[in-house]
Amino acid sequence: MNNQLPFWLEKHTRSIKKVDMHHAFLVSGRKGIGKDLLVRYLSSMTLCNDVELNICKSCNSCKFSTLENHPDFYELQVLPDKKLIGISQIHELRNKLYESSFLGKNKVAFLPNLEKISIDGLNAVLKILEEPPNNTFFFLTTNFLNQIPQTIQSRSFDIKISPPEYEESIEWLSDYPKEDSAHALRLNNNLPLAAKEFLDNGFLKIRKDFIAEISGIIKEGKDIVAISEQWTKDESSLNIKLEWMSLILSDTIRFNADQTKNSLNPDTDNISKYLSKKSNLEKLHQLLNKTNSLWNLFSRETNLRRDYQLNSLFVDWENDLGISKKI
Ligand SMILES: [Zn+2]
């Protein structure tokens, strides 16, 4: 059911074998570090019939192609029309967990992103952890350990995942040209899993085109209507482009204060340096706010005339950055 784990997650599989007293594991670490991947692996280990907690790949449990259709694996998710996981979902989960397992072995409850569970809900989780159902293992994850109530933390075995060293990440990405891996790591907070996904989905090329288009807009007065239409056609890269626009402005603000500062994104240095001489701090901050608002809006809402909104942001960029060219 599961493949190999990346090396920086591998060592954490040993902790579960050592601690047979615990039923609950709290996995924490930065977003994109691989918490879900680790939990799915640990879940497969827990569900497998092997007494040594391995993944045998041949028992009834391991034969399920994914955990999602495994009858003894329960994953909590925020319902489509809700912002948080409420107490009723926790009660529903509790009822299922107090029944016996389908395959006669362990049950696993996966509660990803604890910060997305309501206060009531967390209290209900705590109650279950205080009187855990038989043969049931809980895997909880969070990006923000400091927001998780101490009561939950003290009931769980703590697994903190640290990011690998830069050189180790480059080594792990050795199937890709080194220069590409380095670039992808830089654009993804040095998180190798995120960098790999970035490379696999062709985002290096998208990044290159993005830089050419933004330079075109600010330096040559390129047709912003055409670019907005084109960007909005590709849903999958629209949000990241807005994030990149926001990063350019953050770098521009840094350069505006001090030309010798190091930027966060060397491949857009020329753009940021150019813009920092063209505008003032107040306007840059306004523009950064506008860009971030649109980025947030696009992440939440789907029923928008996106091309129109984006076009209007480009016009703001042109005007506020003092590079207004008639199109
Ligand atoms: Zn098995």
Question: Can you offer a commentary on this structure?
Answer:
The chain is an alpha/beta fold and 327 residues long. It folds into three domains: 7-162, Rossmann fold (3-Layer(aba) Sandwich); 167-198, no CATH class; 208-320, Zinc Finger, Delta Prime, domain 3 (Up-down Bundle). Helices cover 53% and strands 7% of the residues. The chain has helices at 7-10, 12-18, 35-47, 87-97, 119-130, 150-154, 166-172, 178-187, 192-200, 203-220, 224-233, 235-257, 269-278, 281-300, 306-320; strands at 24-28, 73-75, 107-111, 136-142, 157-160. Strands 2-3-4-1-5 form a five-stranded parallel β-sheet, covered by helices on one side. Helix 4 (87-97) runs parallel beside helix 5 and helix 12 runs antiparallel to helix 14. It is elongated, with a radius of gyration of 24 Å. Zinc ion (ZN) binds next to loops.
Bound compounds, please?
zinc ion
How many strands?
5
Helix content: 40-55%
Task: Look at the structure and give the CATH class of the largest domain.
Answer: Alpha Beta
Query: In which order are the strands of the major sheet placed?
Result: 2-3-4-1-5
Notable characteristics:
327 residues; alpha/beta; Rossmann fold; Zinc Finger, Delta Prime, domain 3; five-stranded parallel beta sheet; 15 helices; elongated; binds zinc ion
Topology (SSEs and partners):
Blueprint: H1 7-10, H2 12-18, E1 24-28, H3 35-47, E2 73-75, H4 87-97, E3 107-111, H5 119-130, E4 136-142, H6 150-154, E5 157-160, H7 166-172, H8 178-187, H9 192-200, H10 203-220, H11 224-233, H12 235-257, H13 269-278, H14 281-300, H15 306-320
Parallel strand pairs: 1-4, 1-5, 2-3, 3-4
Helix pairs in contact: 4-5, 8-9, 11-15, 12-13, 12-14, 14-15
